Amino acid sequence: MVKHQPLQVYERQLCLSCITGIYGCRWKRYQRSHDDTTKWELLWSLILLFTFCLLLVWFYFWWEAHNDYNEFNWFLYNRSGEWSDGTVPILATTAAGFTYISFLMVLALCHIALGQQLNLHWLHKIGVTAALLTTIVGVISVNQAWRQEWDIIPISLQATGPFLHIGALAAVTALSWIVAGQVARSEKTMFQVVVLLLYLTVSLGLYVVPLYITSPCIMDPNSLKQRPYVIGHQGAPMLAPENTLWSFQRALQMNVTGFEADVTISVDGVPFLMHDRTLQRTTDVQKVFPDRHMNDASFFNWTDLQQLNAGHWFLKSDPFWTVHTMSPHEKNLISNQSVCSLEQLLKLASYHNTTVVFRLRRPPPEHPCYHSWINDTLEAVQQSGIPQSLVMWTPDEDRAVVKQLAPGLIQTSLEKRSPQSLELSGISALLLRYNQASTQEIRDFSQSNINLTLYTVNEPWLYSVLWCSGVSAVSSEAPQILKKVPYPIWLMRPDEYCLMWVSADLISFAIVIGIFFFQRYRVSGMHSYNPEQIMLSAAVRRSSRDISVMKEKLIFSEVGNGVGSAEELYGDNDYDYYTNQGISQ
Q: 3-class DSSP state for residue 410?
């Protein structure tokens, strides 16, 4: 008796094997399935999507928070007592987690596009859970310790919003290929309706979202005000140790128009520059006065302060990763820096006709200058010989007395108040954090002739947004960076922006419609063929050198859908389907 064993020929699908293998460890053909995804796996798909969206926001937050990395590190220092760049591990884990979750999202979309059942491997489920929980913990921590920094997101969207809209539009347009394929292949009317409604809602939302995008940089260039003045916050702390004479001299080289400093009063009544409550971070006090290194800086006399080195810490800790760019001469100058007095700073500013604004910290109650701190500081200002019109006076205590003794000082407030209230108090300048004034408030202060200075502005995009808003001056730790911004990064007329987003919407809409029609035509054409016949015929038409085959012993008695038998199927293609011939004994 003769037995015929026909061959079924398969093409090796390396790409599909990699997709299903990496996502769900289903490397073999028999492990894959075109069945509907289970509810449990759908739940995990939603968790993956939520984790991706959360990580996307978290990644964007830290990307834009680059302006305030130094502020964040200082917060960490106040809590731990040790100075380190805490942003490095956060950025590394965020980048790694976002890359990993994005990769899984791409694999999941490939599964959907290919009609494969979603089945996330348990190791990936652990990874997704870890990424989700880590991000949630990070969000809660930032919300508790650095809540004001969340304002960076809406502020940054004024610079990035128009371009993020174009990117989101491109992503949704690309997704239409998958959505259209799912709708065309599905035989469930309810599923088609739900998917279409969801996709159309998201698409229409993106099409009209530019109506709600506001940016001060969408304006007539003719109404752009003059470039905001740049004030060196603690000098140029990225190029030299903060609050030292060399730092302020470096700031002058970067064309700053003013200095901002932090002032503390010594135990013998000498105002000096110091940002922290103690001397531990920015001096070698632990080496010179080991028993007093944790004492309040104000309890040192000026003679003791002059013995401290205020530059070695900068070379050692390299807080801004800039030391490697410095010459040996610069490093030598830095290593010889000492604590700077307010009088020394004022004399430097007077010589260069530069404005000075300083924050004065009141000493503790047991300090001998607790009651005389205003008079001691005012006396140092007068002894320096600086014109009063160059000094912005910020303390609110005894302001009326200060006005009588030094009427030429620029009275400046550190507290946000209405323009009318400031005018009634005789205050002509305001110093605020950049997130404390909206675009409209900036313009209101400008119209009321209130000189508004916003701190701390280090990034060109933020400087550009505030420039377009009409701010008069900014305080920066990076004057060397802002020096390279002679014009806003981008400026667009309203009619140009309108043309841009309307054109993008129309192009996207046309592409989406075309994809839906093409997918419908493509899928309807495939329904008219038997999948087995397509696979076997394709194998016959190709050369054996072009394909790798897998042999499975199959005995066909009858083949449905119009194909009578395997013998007839191969016979139509002039293909010898016999693998062996034998005569049984």
A: strand
